[in-house]
Amino acid sequence: MKTDPPHILCVNPWVHDFAAFDFWARPLGLFTIAAILRQNRVRVSFLDCMNRFHPRKTKHVKVYWDGRGPFDKTRIPLPQELEIHLGDANGNFIRYGALKEWIEQDLLAMDRPDLILVTSVMTYWATGVAETIDLLKKVFPDVPVVLGGIYASLCESHARKCSGADHVITGPAEPILADLVETYTGFTLNQIPDPADLDATPFAALDLQDTMAYAPILTSRGCPFSCEYCASSFLEPRFRRRSPENVFQEIRHWHNHFQVKNFAFYDDALLINPEKYAFPLLERIIDEKLDIFFHTPNAVHIREISAKAADLMFKADFKTIRLGLETADFSSHRHDIKVKQDEFFTAVDHLRTAGFAKDQLGAYLLCGLPDQNLDEVEGSINLVKRLGLTPILAYYTPIPHTAMWADAVKNARFDITAHPALTNNSLFPCVHSQQDLERISQLKKMLK
Asked: Quick one: pLDDT at residue 91?
């Protein structure tokens, strides 16, 4: 048994895409693993290929008031897997993140790690993961690389075959972390948090970043719903929650010690059972008079927006409210509609009465679904605008292990099973006709 703590490198890989922007996007799962490792005396380093604030950057870093901002970008060739199916019609392919030579210099200046842990997010960012691992192997050819995260979990066979990782793990990493570290480094982790008690998990190691423009906050794991287009219930089968006090202490920690002003809730179900969870948290925030702002990029469930919920969110300084509407065709029974028309209207009324302005309120509307009637999308846009909200089109990404995946495969205009990159929502894989693609372009213009 090894007694000296190992050096473990945690890596956030590049993104390869047609479009990307930092909408409060941080690898929270990787930071949580890093925190557990540090709790066990492990020496942890962090390599962020997506670092907007890289120390070698000489240009001014654009940072919006809410912490968001554009990534640096480098034009790269379209991957062969895409070119075979798409030709060069979609050739504007980009590596988002820090320049490759900067990342290579960072690695060359680093002490050799004993183990490298790489995360992954969108399934269709697989080529960015592979490029990152290729560089890691070039600099540290004899160091084992373990890949986890969303792409690894949802596209396991592809990740094992194509990512270049020595080991691919699926699902949450916490239950197997001790075995993983002992297998590859010989070091024993003595403190592994109880997965049933989220309060036992240390705060994510967000301080590993060069600059903390905002802090992601997760008050729960999993989701009580099982939407047919979403893989949340596959990735996290159990719905678990942190106590309001534990969440509050984390928010205060990042604000007091790192001057973080903007916080983004990553929850899929922030307002579920609010009397026990959200309300005590919001009341605590209000009572402490913290000078901070909150955002809900993952959307909140409309049915739970009571007058009290709206009032507390406004007083707690929520600046960005996103509603998971999906469609305003309330006569439809597709896509797991979780809200009725009167519930939607009532929720909007509560939010406006509480004091929220139009530019703070947005409603996500699904677009590009298999066999979707775009008249429904246009009608939804018009209704949302009439109610004084901002409509936001959420373009459909076919995701393996979801109820809609088989339908997407059947209806896609090319073989989306050939490579995860072909599921990219920028390609509208389930939109067949040129007429519908042009119609979607018109719908985009309606949003303005």
From this structure: 62
- Asked whether the beta carbons of 384 and 391 are under 8 A apart, the reply is yes
- Which two tokens mark 396? 């459909």
Cα 359 from Cα 321, distance rounded (Å): 9
User: How many helices, marked H, and strands, marked E, lie in the chain?
Assistant: 15, 16
Contacts of 122 (CB under 8 A, 6+ apart): 15, 17, 150, 151, 397
Residue 48's pLDDT is what? 98
Q: CA 368, 370, 375, 380 torsion: positive or negative?
A: negative
- Determine the Cα–Cα distance for residues 129 and 123; give it in Å rounded to an integer: 10
- Residue from 282, 350, 288 nearest 313 by CA: 282
List the one residue out of 90, 117, 134 whose CA is nearest residue 183: 117
> What is the pLDDT, as a whole number, of residue 226?
86
Could you tell me the sign of the dihedral formed by the alpha carbons of 23, 24, 29, 34, in that order? positive
The H-or-E segment that residue 363 falls in is strand 361-367
Transcribe 191-247 into DSSP letters.
----TT-GGGSPPP-GGGSS--S-EEE-SEES-S---TT--HHHH--S-EE--HHHH
**Closest listed residue to residue 101, CA positions, set 127, 121, 74:** 74
Q: Which residues pair with 146 in a beta bridge?
A: 117, 167
What is the Cα–Cα distance from 31 to 34, expressed in whole angstroms?
A: 5
Q: Are 358 and 347 in contact (CB under 8 A)?
A: no
Residue 134 burial class via C-beta count within 10 angstroms: exposed 0-12, middle 13-18, buried 19 and up: exposed
Dig out the tokens for 323 from the structure. 């509603």
Question: Could you report how far apart the first and last alpha carbons of the chain are, in Å?
Answer: 62
CB 115 within 8 A of CB 143: yes
**3-state SS class at 128:** helix
The pair of structure tokens assigned to 352 is 């406006």
Residues 138, 133: Cα–Cα separation, whole Å: 8
CA-based nearest residue to 322, from 268, 279, 284, 280: 268
CB atoms within 10 A of CB 401: 13
Tokens of 218: 């997760």
- Distance between CA atoms of residues 79 and 427, nearest Å: 14
Identify which of 317, 306, 350 has the alpha carbon closest to the alpha carbon of residue 66: 317
Residues lower than pLDDT 70 in the chain = 1-2, 87-91, 332-337
Domains of the chain: 7-185 (3.40.50.280), 214-446 (3.20.20.70)
User: What secondary structure does DSSP assign to 389-402, as a single string?
Assistant: -EEEEEE----TTS
